[in-house]
């Protein structure tokens, strides 16, 4: 199906297939008509075709065309996953985590499976992810970025996996996290999404992303580089707000302040000087990413005694 979609787009639209492209019944019929007219040697030269499949692709296309016609399917979404991935998901659904994972998306199941295989600190990772999304949403409200739900989801998964590299070694664990995310076949993600999440984990600590210094960052296109810069900053702030792994910060938000400043406003259940200090250390990175000065403010609201 992937190869048929490649042919439909490259042969008739003269471009490469993108992540959101689909294969319509009308396009498939055009591909079948084209391929049926050509001898094998000419078929191998069709734009987008895999030459090694030129001898069998007509039979496969005919089956798909018949199924789409008989089932009245107008559009197919293209997946880069195959039978092996389906078998893996079936295995995971029967594993010890099946009950925990029930109701979660394929993407989240895959992310959590990697985290648990790496024995990650799940409460801390979930806390960081929660805070990162609060910062993402509030930053969008005040116009610091215009990212949508797709980017929000990628930040969520990157935050869940940012510390998986500790499984290999705490030293340089951000680099190990990058390697694990980048080289694990996370189900439901395309290569670009995996690259963005891996780079976000890489830059959640230590050096800021620079094209000349970091090949992993330079390999991304400009929109993805911008995403990684913003994600890495928000993840650093969220990580700082759970610096003690104690969950003392209940809520965090970025608000517009006086003289163009941005206030990072924190609501905490008890003293959070460690978290305040850690967050403030990222003010320079904040200014580089958003061209705004950041100040940190905290409000302490002790939890009520239920008794």
Written account of the structure:
By secondary structure, the chain is mainly alpha-helical. It is 53% helix and 9% strand. It has 2 domains: 2-77, Nucleotidyltransferase, domain 5 (2-Layer Sandwich), CATH 3.30.420; 86-300, Hypothetical protein af1432. It is built from 15 helices and 5 strands. Helix 2 packs antiparallel against helix 4, helix 9 (149-161) crosses helix 11 (191-202) and helix 13 (222-240) packs antiparallel against helix 14. The chain starts with a helix and ends in a 7-residue tail after the last strand.
Q: Structural class, from helix and strand content?
A: mainly alpha
Instruction: Report how far the terminal alpha carbons are from each other.
Output: 62 Å
Strand content: 5-15%
Give the % helix: 40-55%
In CATH terms, what is the fold-level topology of the largest domain? Hypothetical protein af1432
**Largest sheet, described in full?**
3 strands, mixed
CATH superfamily label of the largest domain = Hypothetical protein af1432
**Parts with pLDDT < 50 across at least 5 consecutive residues:** none
Q: Determine and state the CATH class of the largest domain.
A: Mainly Alpha
Provide mean pLDDT, rounded.
89
Q: SSE order, as H and E?
A: HEHHHEHHHHHHHHHEEHHE
C-alpha-based Rg, rounded: 24 Å
């Amino acid at each position: 199906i992937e190869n048929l979609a490649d042919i439909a787009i490259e042969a008739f639209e003269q471009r490469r297939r993108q992540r959101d492209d689909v294969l319509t019944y009308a396009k498939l019929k055009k591909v079948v008509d084209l391929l049926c007219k050509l001898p094998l040697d000419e078929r191998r030269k069709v734009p987008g075709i895999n030459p090694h499949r030129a001898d069998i692709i007509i039979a496969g296309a005919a089956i798909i065309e018949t199924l789409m016609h008989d089932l009245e399917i107008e559009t197919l979404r293209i997946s880069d996953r195959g039978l092996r991935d389906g078998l893996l998901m079936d295995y995971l659904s029967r594993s010890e985590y099946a009950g925990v994972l029930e109701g979660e998306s394929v993407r989240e199941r895959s992310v959590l499976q990697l985290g648990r295989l790496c024995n990650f600190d799940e409460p801390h990772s979930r806390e960081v992810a929660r805070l990162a999304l609060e910062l993402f949403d509030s930053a969008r409200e005040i116009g610091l970025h215009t990212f949508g739900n797709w980017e929000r989801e990628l930040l969520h998964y990157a935050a869940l996996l940012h510390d998986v590299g500790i499984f290999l070694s705490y030293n340089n664990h951000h680099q190990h996290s990058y390697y694990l995310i980048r080289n694990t076949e996370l189900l439901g993600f395309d290569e670009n999404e995996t690259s963005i999440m891996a780079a976000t984990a890489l830059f959640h600590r230590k050096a800021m992303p620079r094209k000349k210094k970091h090949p992993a960052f330079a390999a991304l296109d400009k929109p993805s580089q911008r995403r990684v810069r913003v994600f890495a900053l928000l993840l650093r702030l969220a990580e700082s707000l759970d610096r003690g792994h104690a969950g003392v910060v209940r809520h965090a938000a970025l608000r517009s302040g006086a003289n163009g400043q941005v206030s990072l406003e924190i609501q905490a259940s008890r003293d959070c000087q460690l978290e305040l200090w850690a967050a403030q250390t990222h003010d320079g990175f904040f200014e580089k990413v958003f061209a705004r000065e950041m100040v940190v403010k905290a409000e302490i609201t002790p939890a009520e005694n239920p008794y």
